[in-house]
Design a protein that fits this description.
With 678 residues, this protein is of the alpha/beta class. It has 21 helices and 27 strands. Strands 3-4-5-8-9-10-11-12 form an 8-stranded parallel beta barrel, surrounded by 7 helices. It binds NADP nicotinamide-adenine-dinucleotide phosphate and iron/sulfur cluster (SF4). Residues 344, 475, 477, 507-513, 515, 568-570, 575, 578-579, 630-633, 661-663 line the site of NADP nicotinamide-adenine-dinucleotide phosphate (NAP).
Length: 678
């Protein structure tokens, strides 16, 4: 008897004009920079091949420029010459052999291009770029359209099943369609019809240059989230015209890169933007794809059931788990390594010039060199500490066939991850804990909670390898009055062990200081609609008339009921919250809630009156009911040192090895890589 799947809609095929997709999951386009590595083509083939083996219905590559003016960065991906085709065949073959389809995304960066050749419909600099683009003339626009068609034709020769035209996120096509960036008065600008002409001509030219069985996806900006952007009504009109021009699938993107509203960060509730996909689905007969913060099969299935979309576009969730679809299909959704929307190792890496990988899956982007193979010799391994580093080490060692014992002093595994999961928006870390816990069980790891491992338990040849992942302890600072009852450590606050008063001073503006400020300034209401609250908080309008989908009255954040002050010793500007692509949103949110930041502070003492400080020589008292120390961490190395003194070799990883700059990304990666080497 065949078992009923819990995700019948997500796993059902999607009929197309010619052929079909085997399920409703598209791996969304993502710039990885893998192509820039030595042997980059093989890396790409291994990367996409693994996702294809994982069951995804269709893969969209990262964006390829159709000409050199469209490059995102010097030496960025481009497909404009016949001699580039052969390399692409290696990638398309790998995906086809694994039973999936693949389309090439054509992306012209327009004014987002970080090259001296950057062009746009009008010479207006983007707020996120130092470069002013050159205005395209009419002949160059015609040539650009031909370049799109040539790129699609080359993609067909390379074995791609189709192309996706990137008409979203503020790139060149958006720059034509929105009044914000198109000030032209010729046949390419002025009225909404003339602004739409560029994408419509591209769709028609690609259709003419390829043929009917070549899948043509148009990625439309379903809500722009920028001032003077297109309204919902204009976007619906464009969608209908794109359908008439010959597209097969309408994929929805959210916001422009220059929008000051977070669209994919962890503070965005799952499925937030489905309303924008739904209004397009109601306007066209084409299959419509929803995107952004769809990280579990349950979320995708719910949106399909609600009629918000026909397909889900998942990029980061397939970085974190290439086998997302197969696991869901086999009734093993609980084994999915869920993307926690941290951006730390994917978008932040790309933003800072590195190759993308994933915080919860260090193998992402390293499929070619990191292989999980059975251990040649089955060893007895002790792992001490079950924070991020210990969990990764124990689970991968166990999966490889080692006999692993995991010691944890606390009542449950998780370490700092348990604390992080209490921070608003970071509750996705619970998914990481669930994933690792399932993996430990599957690998028969012997988990000993409430057990503080000591040298006596580890010595005497009981273990072939010992891994010390004992993590960190909050740094103790030197300050008079630290024993005052108003003083708390950050673990006491985040775990709820200590309650917090109305007037709060937070010592330290590192990631933890900001997390604690966010935690304490968030008024949680279990019954509130989190999507509605998020949209109001950021001033997003679900209506059809406002330009860019922005509420005219702006965000409606209420100042928080606590008076919170963050303090740092360093003078000048406040330190930025961590996260190249997410920190700005947290800072904005805290500003709107009225969280204050003082810099150049010397701490003098703590008394019943509060925190005595000095700024630029001037003494004052910051009244505080609670003073929270977020002054960084110190490594817990006691056990490692004791073993070393006894001449017992052990491996030191994670925060226990290096507390400064510690984060879950490095901890998981170290644990994972060590376990592969044993
Ligand atoms: P941190 O980033 O090292 O920050 C420690 C803060 O304490 C600094 O603001 C420092 O600023 C202050 N400080 C240091 N020694 C002090 C002393 N003796 N007395 C008073 N103040 C002192 O540490 P953290 O906030 O605990 O974060 C730890 C790691 O986790 C970091 O690498 C961080 O990036 C990472 N993290 C990342 C995220 C994320 O979302 N990506 C979130 C949380 C943490 P001044 O010296 O200027 O006062
Ligand atoms: Fe998701 Fe974070 Fe991994 Fe990026 S690094 S794919 S956001 S879990």
């Amino acid at each position: 008897m065949t078992q009923k799947t819990p995700f019948p809609l997500m796993l059902s095929p999607l009929p197309l004009k010619h052929g079909r997709l085997k399920n409703r999951i598209i791996m969304g386009a993502m710039h990885t920079r893998l192509e820039a590595l030595p042997d980059g083509v093989q890396h790409l083939a291994d990367f996409y091949g693994e996702r294809a083996r994982g069951g995804v219905g269709l893969i969209v590559t990262g964006g390829y420029a159709p000409n050199s003016e469209g490059l995102l960065e010097p030496n960025g991906p481009i497909l404009n010459e016949p001699d580039q085709v052969e390399d692409h065949r290696i990638v398309t073959r790998a995906v086809h052999e694994a039973g999936s389809k693949i389309v090439l995304q054509i992306l012209h960066a327009g004014r987002y291009g970080a090259t001296l050749k950057t062009v746009a419909p009008s010479p207006i600099r983007a707020p996120i770029s130092p470069l002013t683009p050159r205005e395209l003339d009419s002949e160059e626009i015609e040539q650009t359209i031909r370049d799109y068609a040539q790129c699609a034709s080359l993609a067909r020769q390379a074995g791609y099943d189709g192309v996706e035209i990137m008409g979203s996120e503020g790139y060149l096509i958006n720059q034509f369609t929105a009044p914000r960036t198109n000030r032209r008065e010729d046949q390419w600008g002025g009225s909404p019809e003339k602004r739409q002409r560029f994408p419509l001509e591209i769709v028609k030219a690609i259709r003419a240059a390829t043929c009917d069985d070549f899948i043509l996806i148009y990625r439309i900006s379903s809500i722009e989230l920028v001032e003077n952007g297109a309204s919902g009504a204009e976007i619906i009109d464009l969608a209908r015209n794109i359908e008439k021009a010959g597209a097969d699938i309408l994929s929805t993107g959210i916001g422009w890169h220059e929008a000051r509203i977070p669209t994919i960060a962890c503070m965005v509730p799952r499925g937030t933007w489905s309303f924008a996909a739904k209004r397009l689905k109601e306007a066209v007969t084409l299959p419509v794809v929803a995107a952004n913060r769809l990280n579990t099969p349950q979320t995708v299935e719910k949106l399909l059931q609600e009629g918000a979309c026909d397909l889900g576009y998942l990029a980061r969730p397939l970085l974190s788990d290439p086998h997302f679809v197969n696991k869901a299909a086999k009734g093993r959704a609980d084994d999915i390594n869920v993307c926690i929307a941290c951006n730390q190792a994917c978008l932040d890496y790309i933003f800072t010039g590195k190759t993308a990988t994933c915080l919860v899956n260090p193998r992402a982007g390293h499929e070619t060199e990191l292989k999980i193979t059975p251990a040649p010799v089955r060893k007895r391994i002790a792992v001490v500490g079950s924070g991020a580093a210990g969990l990764a080490a124990a689970s991968i060692a166990g999966v490889r066939g080692h006999r692993v014992t995991l010691f944890e002093a606390g009542e449950e595994p998780g370490g700092q991850l348990l604390l992080a999961a209490n921070v608003p928006g970071k509750d996705e870390f619970r998914e990481t804990l669930r994933y690792f816990t399932r993996k430990l069980a599957a690998a028969n790891v012997d988990i000993r909670t409430s057990t503080t491992a000591d040298a006596a338990m580890l010595r005497g040849g009981k273990y072939d390898e010992i891994i010390i992942a004992t993590g960190v302890a909050p740094r103790r600072i030197d300050l008079k009055g630290l024993d005052h009852p108003c003083v708390a450590t950050y673990p006491q606050i985040l775990s709820g062990a200590k309650s917090c008063g109305e007037r709060v001073a937070i010592i330290g503006t590192g990631g933890i200081g900001y997390d604690v400020a966010d935690f304490l300034s968030t008024d949680t209401d279990e019954n509130s609609d989190s999507v509605r609250a998020f949209l109001n908080d950021w001033g997003v309008d679900r209506g059809l008339d406002t330009p860019g989908g922005l509420l005219p009255e702006g965000p409606s954040t209420a100042p928080c009921h606590r008076r919170i002050t963050l303090l740092q010793r360093t003078s000048g500007k406040p330190r930025k919250p961590p996260g190249a692509t997410t920190g700005w949103a947290l800072r904005k949110r805290l500003q709107r809630r009225g969280v204050n930041i003082l810099t150049g502070v010397s701490y003098e003492r703590i008394s019943d009156d509060g925190l005595h400080i000095r700024i630029e020589g001037k003494q004052s008292v910051l009244p505080a009911d609670t003073i929270i120390i977020c002054a960084g961490q110190q490594s817990r190395t006691g056990l490692y040192e004791e073993l070393s003194m006894l001449g017992i070799h052990s491996h030191l990883i994670g925060g226990a090895k290096q507390a400064g700059e510690l984060d879950a990304l490095r901890a998981i990666s170290e644990g994972y890589r060590l376990a592969l080497a044993l």
